[in-house]
């Protein structure tokens, strides 16, 4: 018997009892759609993490000094001397004061104030929307100039040009020289959109702050991050004679760690979803066993007119595979549709990812039909023509 004839017979059987067919396929539909959805969530989250840190760069290290004593503080000039070290391309020491009172005309708001140097913006992969960023001269002469984020500019000036306007920062007047493009938060969680950036020496004097506690260090390339980190560790240990007074944050390590955690969770979720497929396969096997019992007369008659064992086996095996495959196809459509229509499931919105996962899940669902349909098909093939007389 040809495969096409077997397929037609299987389709006729499926159409003869649509409600049973749908309920039988339900486990496979849920299993396949769950696999696609959960893998899309995991992979999409990993891609989203990569993109978040891609804007910052994976060759950036952040040194944070701990404690309140003099032994855990550094001076600006000391840090900038490291810029000549092999492998280090730029250093941007920073001072940050959160919830600082900022005034313009009759409007008062609280924003973050960041004191830093002219390297900071490039290291943060930020851009200036209008005006300019800090220059070396602003630091040398301790100029009272400021660069503001988009949120600050909108709050105080609306659609007006804020360049050369003066704002009151902690009781001191600063002239606005630039406005940043919207960027969002950096690795420390500080939003540049709601920040006011001023020359570090000026901030240190006006705010009466001590020495620097946080510093961004950019390696010349991603390959030299480990080398630069080792240099920083040796330098800081030589300064403090201890490893407990500071931390060095490596953004590439965080990406790897988060992706590993995301991958582990995704694998666990997929394993749970795969169980749904197996349960669906068991459901198919049970229904096929019932079908064999109901069609005992049909099988006996076919055997009596010359049908061979392999014909009966293939007939029921094709039916089981068809039901499972149809369930897998519906699950593929549901899973891919959800992953593309709902950004939370697939933040990166990669169609190829959902389709490739869906294809594998669909093929696996068909395999489930073959595996779990084999026993009922084998049982049906072993029936003898005399068994048709036992049909009630």
Account of the 3D structure:
The chain is of the alpha+beta class. Helix content is 54%, strand content 18%. The radius of gyration is 34 Å and the shape is elongated. The mean pLDDT is 84.
Low-confidence stretches: none
Annotation field: number of helices: 12
What is the count of β-strands?
10
What percent strand?
Answer: 15-25%
Q: Average pLDDT value?
A: 84
Strands of the widest sheet, in order across it, are: 2-3-8-5-7-6
Order of helices and strands: HHEHEEHEHEHEEEHEHEHHHH
What is the radius of gyration?
34 Å
- The coarse overall form would be elongated
Task: Tell me the span between the first and last alpha carbons.
Answer: 28 Å
| Category from helices, strands and their pairing | alpha+beta
Largest sheet: 6 strands, mixed, barrel
**Secondary structure: helix percent:** 40-55%
Subcellular location: Cell membrane
Transmembrane segments: 21-42, 269-292, 312-345, 357-375
Membrane topology: Multi-pass membrane protein
Family: Belongs to the ABC-4 integral membrane protein family.
Question: Any key phrases for this structure?
Answer:
54% helix; alpha+beta; elongated; 392 residues; 12 helices; 6-stranded mixed barrel
Short recap of the structure:
This protein is of the alpha+beta class and about 400 residues long. It contains 12 helices and 10 strands. Pfam families: FtsX, MacB_PCD.
